[in-house]
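Co-fold these.
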Amino acid sequence: MESKLPDGIYDIAIVGGGVVGFAAAMYAGRFNLKTILFGDSLGGTIILTDVVENYPGFKRVTGLELAKALEEHAREYDVEIKEEKVAKVEGSGNCYRLWDESGGSYYSKAIIFATGTKVRKLGVPGEEEYANRGVHYCALCDGPIYKDKALAVVGGSDSAAKEALLLSQFGRKVYIIYRGENIRPEPINGERVARNPKIEVITQTNVKEIKGKDGKIAHLVLDKPYKGNNIFPVDAVFIEIGHLPLSDLAKGLGVKLNGKGEIIIDRESKTNIPGIFAAGDVVDTKFKQAITGVGEAVSACYSAYQYINTTELVCLVGDGAQNRNSKA
Amino acid sequence: MESKLPDGIYDIAIVGGGVVGFAAAMYAGRFNLKTILFGDSLGGTIILTDVVENYPGFKRVTGLELAKALEEHAREYDVEIKEEKVAKVEGSGNCYRLWDESGGSYYSKAIIFATGTKVRKLGVPGEEEYANRGVHYCALCDGPIYKDKALAVVGGSDSAAKEALLLSQFGRKVYIIYRGENIRPEPINGERVARNPKIEVITQTNVKEIKGKDGKIAHLVLDKPYKGNNIFPVDAVFIEIGHLPLSDLAKGLGVKLNGKGEIIIDRESKTNIPGIFAAGDVVDTKFKQAITGVGEAVSACYSAYQYINTTELVCLVGDGAQNRNSKA
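Predicted complex below.
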């Protein structure tokens, strides 16, 4: 059952080095598929999360610990893990060619996109200028320096609530500023927010601008007055208004996206393109959790395994030489 | 956000006390839903598995350890766990009424079926007669008593291979008897079988009968000769030919099943009946793993939460008194 593929040709390429990618890699290893995983920052976005209490089986771990557990699990198997970003993907014959940012190129019969998301920016004046000088996107990363300061979180999701809860450990006061009528965290986090004397929720309010002086943030400009004033002094603001799916590479291959730019998959984690599978935060699942993404990754891996074993694949390699592989 | 439901009325009833049910219960607890879980044998079928190496995050645990981890995780939250089998379910108003086998009855706005499967029997003469006297369905449970004996596993799945691998630790010889052309385990287990000097695979062969004397098994009767003889002496045979979905309760409510009797769900773990959700081995997922079932459980729980919060529910309780609940 040893793979007889030449150097540089893989059964499966996993694009994304978060928990979802690692779960796919672990299963690919168990399936004896020749596997390469690309991740420009191993661990993925979950390592920005302070406490994870909802990955079934782990009562309470840090995001980093969870990511490490899944990475180590994947490394139990014979899979290649490359700390490289994939810069380009193209169809080649009826397999795929990937290039990393260092210029390396790889062929693969199947691809699993587990590329996740990037943070959505607020898009207001001052946001770029004061980035990392009072404007932040990760409480765990940047919160601890704001001890006893006045902090704001912009957003109303569960993530926004969790960011505020974390920041309340450092700051003297944390405001959640949300455009909607009610914040909508998981109930357990909603209660924690409600009980926390340091946190105040300001709803139906938008941040219009971020102003500073002497090279750091000074205040937010709100679109309606809070206690009679649109000027809202803070020492830092944490933007938590959602994420954008990293689906450009898939889109370039003709993979169908929904209106939010998420990859559309079916229950077997198949996309509309044969040989292309996807899982995790980048796909169109409504309720996205680490655990649902990991489940999708396992389905994706199985679908890829079935595909590889039932499809005659021809990779047009380098000078046009062909690697034919028929297991059908 | 405290539930104001009267005694005996729940937001959500989870039927099934395996890992899938526990994952649903844990999330239901986090959602602050008033939750009851029924399981006649807590832990579910995974506790019959010796080694689990493919639940992402746990490199290698026993099935029992994994079940315990998920049970303890669920018990972190305010959920009621009842070691009772559900005997009957009926629609009541537009909520549901459940009866346990001890005669207790409960109302619930939503149900998640995580009922799993039961073992499929071979259906040959002698199987019932020698049950537990040489005919078994769980190597982990019953294998250790057959030290240095000649054992057979009937089946060709990954589970059959894993049963044989486990039995090879006890028996002097383990035969895998499979009707198909090739056994089809996960490749990693296929290799382990191939490398194991105690295991021999006999394909394209059926067991027609199980014969015994003096109250215990003596030999199998094969449908074609092995080494010139249809009589195949063994000390025990382990049947591992698959499982049957435990979907009768759901079927009784009008839930659609597929040809295999599995509950048909969508990507949000919804069935065709409002308020009824399902996850895990009982549903129509093709590649069923503990982790995919757990992912489905989390989706089911979220769908139930959405349903409960957007539907006016009326439970016709006891003497006809109504509990109206409108959160929409």
